[in-house]
Amino acid sequence: MKYTPDKESIRKHEVPAWFHDAKFGIFIHWGLYSVPAFAVTGKDFISSIEEEDHYANNPYAEWYLNSLRIPNSPTQKYHQESYGDNFSYDDFIPIFNEEIKKWNPQEMAETFKKAGAKYVVLVTKHHDGFLLWPSKIPNPQKENFCASRDIVGELSREVVKGGMKMGFYYSGVLDWSFNQNPITSEASSLSNRIMPQEYVNYANNHWYELIDKYEPMILWNDIGYLWGTNIYEIFAYYYNKFPEGVINNRWMQMSDDVINSLQSLSDCLIKQADKSISKWEERAYKKTKKRKPSGRDIVHCDFLTPEYKSFNVILDKKWETCRGIGNSFGYNKFESEADYSTSEKLIRNLVDIVSKNGNLLLNVGPKADGTLPEIQKKCLIDIGDWLNINGEAIYNTRPWIKAEGYTLEGIDVRFTRKDNKLYIILLEKPAKYFTVIENLFDLSILKIYLLGFDGELSWNYKLNQLKIFLPKDLWNSPAYSFQLVLSGI
Length: 489
Fold this sequence. Notes:
Blueprint: H1 7-10, H2 17-22, E1 24-28, H3 45-48, H4 64-68, H5 74-83, H6 92-99, H7 105-114, E2 119-125, H8 151-161, E3 165-171, H9 186-191, H10 197-214, E4 218-222, H11 231-241, E5 246-247, E6 253-254, H12 256-263, H13 267-284, E7 296-297, E8 319-324, H14 343-354, E9 358-364, H15 374-390, E10 404-406, E11 412-418, E12 421-426, E13 434-437, E14 445-450, E15 459-462, E16 465-469, E17 480-486
C-alpha cells in the first residue's frame, strides 16, 4: 500500500513476518567512548537510576562524555589521571580513527552469524554526536566529527551478504555536541532535550540519508524525537521505500512547554511520571482504543523496546528487549567476569523472551579497533552452538496459549509453537530419567522428540500431566527443547 504522512495511514503498517521469525539480533555500541572504555563497575543502570548520584556514577561506558562533564565524577578523575587536564574528548578522534584501520567487518559479521543472529542494529550516532559514516550533512558544531571509515556502509554490506538484516540506531533527541550542559538529574535530562532548529534539520536529514544510502530494515531511534517534526513524514517515506522495514517505539515527542512544566517537579516526581507513562504505554499498546496523555504524543511503532527486562505474560504487541552481555553497552575494560552474564543465563533469557512474543537484541561493545572482547565473543559462540541444536524451537515460532509452566520437580518450562508442533523447553537439566510437565491443556500428541537426539521418546499423558522419558546419558545444556507433534493445535 501507499503510506501517507499521517497517523491513521502509518498505523496500518503490520509487523512483517521476518521480524516475528528472527527472535535474536545483535546490538553494537562502538564509538569514541570505546577508546577510554571506562565506567564505574559493580552496578547496573536500571537499579542504579534510583540513586541520587546516578549520572555521576553511570555504569554505561557510552555515557563517558556526559560523566566526564560532571565535576568530581569517577570518570572525570579517571580522565585526568589517564590523559591529563588538557586532553579533551575530541582528542580521542585520531586515536579511534587509527584503531579502526585494523577492523575487519567481514570477521565481525561472521561472528554474528555464528551466534545465530538474524539481524544487527548498529549505533550510527550515540548521544556524544560522533558519526560512524561520512555524512553529507556534517556536524555544524564540530569539523570532521565522524569516523575515517564508513563503518555503517562496510558493516551493512557484510551483514546483508551473510543473510542477516541490518538496522540503525540513532540518538534522536540528545546530542552533546549541540548541548554541552551535562545531565546530572532527571530535570537536566529533560532540559537536555530542548534543541535548536538547526539540530532538528540536522537529525531529520540524517535519517533520510541513512534510509537512502544504506537501506536499513530497522529504524531504532533512542530517548525520543524532536518537537516540530512531523514524524509521520519520515515513517511514510521509509515504509514506502521498504514496506518490510520496522520502526521501534522510542520516538515520543515532548513540546518545550511540557518539558519546562515537568522540570518544575522534583526529580523523584519526574521519575514517577516517567514510570507511570511507561506502564500506561504498555497497557495502551495492548488495547484497540488508545488515549493520548496531554502534551506527550505516543507515536506509531512496530515494536516495544524495554531494556534489561522481560514480562511475566505474553504481550499482544511485538516487543524486543535490549541488554548488554555485561552492565555496560559500550566496551568497559574495567568490567570483570563478575560483571558479565553467562551464556547459560542469556540462553534462558532468550527462551523466556521468545515464549512471550519478544526478540532479544543482545549488545556487544567492541574495543576501539573493532575486535570483540573474548568474554563477549565466547558468549556469542555458546549461544550459536545452542541454537544450532535448538533453533527449531526458537526461530519462526509464535507464542502458545501460555508461556510459562513447571515440571513436577520444579524446573521452569517455556512454550513455543509452529504449525502442528508444540515446543516445551526445560530451563534446567532434570535430575531423574524422566520429567513430568504439569497443568497442560488437552493435547492430541502423536510423537515426541528431543532436539539434538535421534529417535522418538517414550511418553504418557493423562490428567493434563505429560511424562517424558529421557535419553540415557542426557548431555549438559542450559535448556532442553522437546518437540511435540500434534494432530491439532
